[in-house]
Amino acid sequence: MKAFIFDLDGVIVDTAKYHFKSWKIIAKKIGFKLSKTQNELLKGVSREESLNKVLNWGGISIDRLEKNKYLEEKNELYKGFINNLNHMDILPGVNKLINFARNNNIPIALGSASKNAHRILEKLGIKNKFKVIIDGNLTSKSKPHPEVFLRGAEILGINPKNIIVFEDSIAGIEAANKAKMISIAVCAKRKIKNATFNFNSLDDISLEFFEKLEFK
Ligand code: B16
Ligand code: MG
After folding, report:
1. Is 9 noted as a catalytic residue in this protein?
2. Phi and psi at residue 27, in whole multiples of 5°?
3. Does ligand 1 have an atom closer than 6 angstroms to the CB of 112?
4. How do beta strands 163-167 and 182-186 pair?
5. Which of 76, 84, 26 is nearest to 50 (CA)?
6. CATH superfamily for domain 3-14+86-212
7. What integer pLDDT is reported at residue 216 of this predicted model?
């Protein structure tokens, strides 16, 4: 065992539904209905890249000033939705894996596209469990680019092939694969193609799984 990198939204906490709610409101303002299928393609993608996709789907072109206005508005809506998050919102299996990592000297990092990552981890009360936090403020290339995970590996000082990434998004699994890490998709609704392993949730991963897993 060498290191774990956790995605945040959709893996540690179910904030993905709040991103969806916020983008739906913004999409409606710019004149179209955002579908669940389209939303899947926003998961793991940075705020600005998400707005670009939304505008593209709506066939709408706006200037920089208006873009900034929507980005700010989206974030204000989102911050309102996540305001009451607390430790009860930590998804099943997260604490079990954090404890397993601590007991086995496996450092853990966060690899999230979100610029709200510190705020969310503080609200959940688990920020101090992460040795390294790479978020949207420290990266310039959005998942599926591997930058977020490679920076994590670099700061942890661990070879990417010895890192397990837990992700819920198509873009995130692609990013972990490009980084040559072991990608574990956690998603109850569907399997994510090309993930090294698929599980319905973190809670479904037994500790024996890690013991049997050979790092090549
Ligand atoms: P923010 P993750 C991603 O977080 C979300 O999945 C994605 O929907 C969101 O657009 C992105 O963070 C940026 O978030 O607006 O808070 O900066 O899944 O990579 O933890
Ligand atoms: Mg995610």
Report:
1. yes
2. -60, -40
3. yes
4. parallel
5. 26
6. HAD superfamily/HAD-like (3.40.50.1000)
7. 42
Which SS3 state, helix, strand or coil, does residue 170 take? helix
Torsional class of 215: left (φ above 0), alpha (ψ -120 to 50), beta (otherwise): beta
CATH number among 3.40.50.970, 3.30.70.260, 1.25.40.10, 1.10.150.240, domain 16-82: 1.10.150.240
In short, whether 19's Cβ falls inside 6 Å of ligand 1 is yes
* Tokens read off for 57: 């789907």
Residue intervals in the chain for CATH 3.40.50.1000: 3-14+86-212
Q: Does the active-site annotation cover 7?
A: yes
CB 138 within 8 A of CB 151: yes
Residue 165, classed as helix, strand or coil, is: strand
Tokens describing residue 201: 């949730």
**211 CA to middle of ligand 2, Å?**
25
pLDDT in tens, 120-160: 999 999 999 999 999 999 999 989 999 999 999 999 999 99
**Per-residue pLDDT averaged across 52-73, rounded?**
95
